[in-house]
Amino acid sequence: MSVLKRGLIAGAAGALVTLSSFAGAPAIAQEEKSPWTKACNTNPQTKKEICFISIELRTNTGQFLSNIAIQEVEGEARKKLLVAVPTGVLIQPGLRIQIDDSKPVQGKYSICAPNACYAELAIDSNFINAMKQGGEMRVTPFNQQAKEIVFKMTLIGFTKVYDGEPMNLAELQKRQEELQSELQKRADEARQKLIDAQKANQ
Q1: Cys staple from 166: which of 40, 76, 128, 202, with CB 3.0 to 4.6 Å?
Q2: What is the mean pLDDT of residues 57-83?
Q3: Phi, psi at residue 20, to the nearest 5°?
Q4: What confidence score (pLDDT) does residue 187 get?
């Protein structure tokens, strides 16, 4: 897995978590801005532009749940869907990707790092069109008890981001800082609620 790919899809970096922790974990509510982002770079060897259209899902306290990225290479019809989920998954059954009520697509893991496990699927324009017309994408890995863990990603706003211009580095940095600030705020609020509840029970 290239450094570029890992850097763009591995939003799990530093989050040493397992799937069993997230059976009922609430996901961050969708913002007015589309949670999808588009970033492009030029491969110095092939001189071709590579674009990643991605979305990341975290809990209200900032813990990583899943990341999806579409990889497209300039001049190539073939595309890849890159999926990252927390460690602790059952490797053999792989995971499932489903758009709304369409037939699920099976994916196999290509590698597991200390922070996440990664799957890679070949997709085409039909899959992209289904995403554009869909409302939700579900990523379903299996935990150590062979139970499904469903991560839901909104497809609202996907078309605009996919067809639009890529974000520049300054925009990406600003968005990341805003997200980190919001996650820290929510974590502080959750911690304060816990402290208040403990005081009330004393």
Answers
A1: 40
A2: 89
A3: -60, -20
A4: 66
pLDDT of residue 58: 85
Query: What whole-number distance in Å separates Cα of residue 202 and Cα of residue 198?
Result: 7
C-alpha distances (whole Å) from 202 to each of 161, 189, 190, 193 are 51, 20, 19, 14
DSSP letter, residue 148: B
Rounded CA separation 172/164 (Å)? 15
10 Å CB burial of residue 168 (0-12, 13-18, 19+) is: exposed
| b/e 25-51 (16+ beta carbons within 10 angstroms → b) | bebbeeeeebbbbbbeeeeeeeeeebb
Domain boundaries along the sequence of the chain: 3-167
Residue 54, number of CB atoms within 10 A of its CB: 21
Query: CA 178 to CA 81: how far, in whole Å?
Result: 26
Q: Which of 180, 190, 142 is nearest to 56 (CA)?
A: 180
From the CB of residue 90, how many other CB atoms can be counted at a distance below 10 Å?
A: 17
25: alpha, beta or left? (left if phi > 0; alpha if psi -120 to 50): beta
Reported CATH class of domain 3-167? mainly beta
- Assess whether pLDDT exceeds 70 at residue 169: no
Which of 7-21, 44-58, 175-189 bottoms out in mean pLDDT, i.e. has the lowest? 7-21
